[in-house]
Amino acid sequence: MLDFGTLRSQDRPKLLNLHLLNSGTKDVPITSVRTTPSNEAVAVDFKAVTLKAGESRYTRVASISFDASKARRPFQFSGKITVKAKEKSYSKLEIPYQAEVLDGYLGFDHTATLFHIRDSPVDPVERPIFLTNAFSFAVRIHNVSLPEEARTMFKVQNLSAPILIPPHESRYIFSLLFRPVRPSIHIDSNILLITNASKFHLPVRAYTGFLEPLVLPPSLKENILDFGVCSATDTSSVTFVVVNSNPIELEIKAWLLTGDSLSMELLRTERGNSSAALGRLRELQNSSASQQKTVILASGYYAAFRVTLVAAALEGAYDGAVHITTDYEILTIPVRALIAVGTLNSSPKHIVLPPSFPGKVVHQSFSIQSSFTQKVRLQQIRSLTEDVRFYYKRLRSNRDELEPRRRSKTTSRPELHPSPSLSFTPDFTSSRVIRELKLVTCGGSEFVFVLNASLPYHMLASCAETLPRPAWELELYVIVSLIMSSMFLLVIATAYLEAQSIWEPFKRRVALEASSSMETGRPFNLREIVQIHSESK
Asked: What Pfam families is this protein classified in (predicted)?
């Protein structure tokens, strides 16, 4: 028996799993699971499965859900689940199900259990909770309780259980005391009501109305828009999101900037939290700007923004800020950067890899020269075209930071920093490959270099010798040799038979003429031979 218990017409669908055990000696394939008779209130989630013989554990065969909102007539409250199998001895199994459906609900004012946590300390707030009985019978409230996480700010008062609520009437049940504590946190919980019509849950929520900011990589800090070290010729961008984890929607009325050379644009709004935004990092960074001037951010959604810094005509430490205005706060996110005059250069300028062929790995070392006055951390080296044949390895005793240039009395000599060694593994897809290499600093600066690798045509033979021979090559050689030999013998046999068909008629004709009146000394005439052959056909 699948018993769904007591359900109210406003309840969410209840799910039960159907487990079966095969105690026989043969495997039993289950072909279908369905309701008998058909019932729109019951949904069956089933995929074909085979019950192994002699199993000691039950196997989940299907998931059965009962939606009380679709059960409008009494005959829908019960029925049978029919399981069919490919087995003659027990091809069909019927399992009864039932549910008790109560038509109605307990109504209440949802705003009565929704509380705003303010910045400044406030006096405790007490609100009366009334319930309306929309059932056709009296509902008796036996008990009211709060979960542990809600008791830090909430308390149930003035409860005189049991309380009887006549059908289609309202009654005062208890008072809910709210006392905010610091530090402020969101509370999203439920008050549990024990009644004669099963259990009810009343949502109780406390919120700050604040947005949760998250600055995405390459910024090193999640709460600061950190551009790191930027060249005076750079234009860098950093993406960040603000998440609404409040149980209400928030309107972002404006976003402003403090600081020169900064610009800010809205990218998009999406459902998700901070983890979801991090998982869509590349997609968000490549998003185009939206033209919206205000944003209505629903609960459980985030808005993504991009801040761009144009470092031209700036030098030294840079400080700015982003300001986002809602009805509950002005969220301020600091902007920081260290703008230096200098560049990164590679030696050599052009990376040309030696000739190679499939199976041979070639590499080329190169160095990075920093003319900045500050340390620059090397974060990443990658090919712009994401070509897996190019990769890099750091040299031993190699450092992550490029030291600032050294100074002397007469000249300044930038320090050469040995960078990773590039390797290239060629294949037969092309004889010449040109790719770009991008260096990204911790401040988001990008430096692009060209990689050039070639495979000379005269090296193809050497490539073939180097590559291991396939296991089927010898078999293919023997098969082809046999086929060619057979064809050669067939040609010889065909030629022999054709010659015989020409020679035999000629031989008979000559013998006939010799026995009659053959002239001696007559020249040998090939045309007569051909004529004889034609007549014989």
From this structure: Ig_TMEM131L_3 (PF24498)
